[in-house]
Amino acid sequence: MGTFNRLHLIRQVDLFTLRLFLSSIEEQQIGRAAIRENIAASTATKRIQVLEDIAGIQLLERGPKGVVPSPAGAVLARYVRQIFDSLEDMRSEISSFTQGVRGELTIASARTIIVPFLAREMGDYSREFPLVELALHDVENADIVRQVAHGEADVGVFAAAYGLDLDGVDVTPYRRDRLVVVVPRGHLLSERPGVTFQELLPEKLIAVTSMFGAFRAAARRLEREFEPGYHVRSASVALSLVQAGLGVTVQPECLLTREDLDGVAVLELAEPWAVRKIHIATAHGRALSPAARAFLNQLLDRPGDHGAQRRDA
Known about the structure:
alpha/beta; two-stranded antiparallel sheet; 23% strand
């Protein structure tokens, strides 16, 4: 690491990197911060390393369970929060000079997307466009697409699924997440880095309703029948059953918090379909309202990997 250089900080560190730094502290993992900010984990790690190089000191202390701010990192975090508070105050004052976008916006999505991603996006959007009235429909994948196609929702955010009918909607890629296997600590599989779905079939699989279609399709490809040990509607319920030693489950990695990892082990699901592709749906052939267009632009407004590259001042 070098020494702290104010000009380097101004010229080379962007606001997104500073927000990523705060997210890493809040999530206590750089990987989860990368999921939250919708960039690759390798890019997130590189941005943090560049930030530390410019600061000339370690900002995050790494451990087996994640990261915590170093004493210097805690100081930086305090000042970075002040910067973002000032930006929010500036936004509020400037927005008072214009009427801005107004109207109503209805969003349809599933809980496994709302909780880790959309809730925060909607909060940011509401602060940016306070004259837009937001409505949220918490529904399953098939209903998300149907509501958008029938005009019941302006924008839908859904996970790609086998056999999902996309007739009547235009689809835009949004994020990627991955499915992981969660087993009780001490389970026969717990020391392995990853398992296939075929290896999970003999286990008492705790299946969340939203995963049924993927599990049935995977079982059919193996010429097997899918018979869950438990059928639940909530990912949190499935996790609590695993923690109680009642079986194993498969969940989106983005839903797991550091606290959730007590008493369980997380393994890679070694299947091509374990990469969860999340898309945005808008009605085919129907122009977006200004409010919907602004929301779509916000969802897609993410920096590329080039922002992580350091340039000499």
